[in-house]
TrEMBL record:
InterPro entries: Proteasome_assmbl_chaperone_2, PSMG2_sf. Residues 224-248 are annotated as: Disordered. This is 3-isopropylmalate dehydratase. It comes from the Archaea. It holds the Pfam family PAC2.
Length: 248
């Protein structure tokens, strides 16, 4: 049965229309790196587990912890009114619609404003990765208030994050998307840093320390490269944004 199993119910009443940052693996692992960093930086509480159709039936174990966990989990910080959706595995795009339906009712119940993250493949350069935002259900006004740029080209978001955004569009649910230029081949902590500093910070009003994220670029890349390789070798389509071009 599709459900969100809440582990820290005492936090529910403390959350007031919270913002949620989504961290499903995708191009450059931007969302994954950003979500993991938020959970670690704020020592967020393991709030709940997602048992939704479409999530592979696997169990996750962690370093120095004998307890098993499901692969998709929710973390909460009531003081900052913040939630993070963390995933240790890629979600198949054809199963993401089920995940969207499962999470959607929970979004509505807690009046969650989700921020979905996606990388758009660009070759690395010395320039800071460009970031822009999109929204639905009237949420785009938050982007203007936060000074986040509009898209500079026509494009689409595919994969599981695209399915979640599509569901929000279909039901008229307020939702935001942040799209950042990222390395198409390797984990990209710099793109994740841009998402946090230029996107998540101004949208939430929460200051996030990122010095550690930048200093640990090599370590993070090495830790995430196995997941990135598995996604590249898979026939499944991972989360990504891509331009459509003038004549699609």
């Amino acid at each position: 049965m599709a459900r969100i199993h809440v582990l820290a119910d005492e936090l529910t009443d403390q959350l007031d229309s919270p913002t949620m940052v989504e961290g499903l693996p995708g191009v450059g692992l931007v969302g994954k790196i950003a979500a993991d960093h938020l959970v670690e930086a704020f020592d967020m509480t393991h709030y709940g587990d997602a048992f939704c159709d479409g999530i592979p039936d696997v169990a996750v174990y962690m370093e120095d912890d004998p307890e098993l966990h499901p692969p998709v989990r929710l973390y909460a910080d009531a003081e900052r009114n913040l939630l993070v959706l963390q995933s240790d595995i890629p979600i198949r795009p054809d199963a993401a619609t089920e995940l969207a339906g499962c999470l959607g009712s929970w979004f509505d119940e807690l009046d969650v404003l989700p921020i979905f993250l996606s990388g758009i493949a660009r070759e690395k350069s010395a320039d800071t990765p460009a970031l822009y935002g999109v929204g639905t259900g009237g949420a785009a006004e938050h982007l203007t208030a936060a000074g986040i740029d509009n898209p500079t080209e026509t494009g689409l978001v595919s994969g599981p994050t695209g399915a979640l955004l599509s569901n929000a569009v279909a039901v008229g649910r307020p939702a935001l998307g942040l799209i950042v230029e990222s390395d198409p081949q390797f984990p990209d902590p710099e793109a994740a840093r841009v998402v946090i500093k230029q996107g998540i910070e101004p949208l939430t009003g929460i200051e996030v320390p990122v010095d550690d994220l930048v200093d640990r670029t090599t370590e993070i890349r090495e830790a995430k490269e196995q997941l990135a390789r598995r996604m590249q070798q898979s026939d499944e389509e991972s989360t990504q944004a891509r331009p459509l071009g003038m004549y699609q």
